[in-house]
Amino acid sequence: MPATVVVGTQWGDEGKGKLTDLLAGEMDMVVRYQGGHNAGHRIVVGGEAFALQLVPSGVLYSHITPVIGNGVVVDPGVLVAELDALGAKGVDVSRLLVSGNAHLIMPYHQELDRLTERFLGKNALGTTKRGIGPAYADKAARVGLRVQDLLDPKIFRQKLDVVLHEKNLVLTKVYNRLAMSAAEISARYLDEYAPRLAPMIVDAVGVVHDALARGERILLEGAQATFLDLDHGTYPFVTSSNPVAGGAATGSGLGPRDLTRIVGIAKAYVTRVGAGPFPTELDGELGDLLVTRGAEFGTNTGRRRRVGWFDAVMARQAVRLNSLTEIALTKLDVLDTLEEVKVCVGYEMDGERYDYPPYHQSVLHDVTPIYETLPGWGEDLSTRTSFEDLPRAARDYVAFLADVIGVRIATVGVGPQRDQFVRPS
Predict the structure, then answer these.
(1) Is 37 among the residues known to form the active site?
(2) Given the residues 41, 103, 109, 232, the one annotated as active site
(3) Rg (CA), the chain
(4) Active site residue 41
């Protein structure tokens, strides 16, 4: 049975958690394939909100096996706390499996993340300061500690001693901070976290391939989005891994031919967090309105998101990068009160038009968006239960987006609840 990938098509916060939760009802396994606890998913079920950071969204279904794949970086303290919080709400978390090849976020990763951002000053990248980038950097440098190391205290301490020697030199000599204690870190990770996580640690590659062989349906879930991708995003204002669909294969251990349905998630407008270019960004009262109506604040960090009109230039590039088979459009209801809505259909600079993002960052920072203006609908969409029940202007907006993007829109979100969506025929 082939696998389905859910991937964000913008700068994140498109509603991947809600869609993953929705699709999970049809699945047997949900695998998180990249990222860390720097991107949260908020799901509302029966009026109760669940904020997920590391645990795959499918955990809310009793029939799902949730798996944290090898491409994820795991802060074990955050994971344990999240499991406890979910358990306190009556969620069965005993089914969670964690790849032994996933890398651990260590205390020095978090400290170095904070210090680096502080010393960059006005050139800061806007990271969440949670150690994600430094953990991936150590993974690439081949000095990272992995989840499986929690099962071998001797190996854990040996690896920690080697890497901490270098990290402490940086902390003390470069940043004038206190050295970290290997003994304290070992005690916390081996005595506190390891016993909790040990029953969950598995060969995740074997697990997902065995599931495919049994004919089970697998959903692959990323943490960030296409334009935060390390290779294809608005570098350097990106994450430290590959959220694009190709990263789903690397981060889960599945092969490319196993991925046959790739669902792109897009908001009916665009948001991003932190620094970086944003051609359609809105300021002033209209921007404030979208932030307020869309509750555009980070699930984990509480940071206000930047907002802007829908950008079809980005969306077309996302289609190419991910081989999207369909799009799920979220938060259409946020635009309910607007008299008109705009869609960026191209960029312009010095008389040249761009239908796809220019590869050179200096150009992208200075382009002017080319807009098409459509009428608003001025009606509450949150109670609508079918696409045909939507106002004509709302349906026309969805149809226009599908046309300028070049991929069908298969699902439209009209509210935050799990069941608040409609499907165009």
Answers:
(1) no
(2) 41
(3) 22
(4) yes
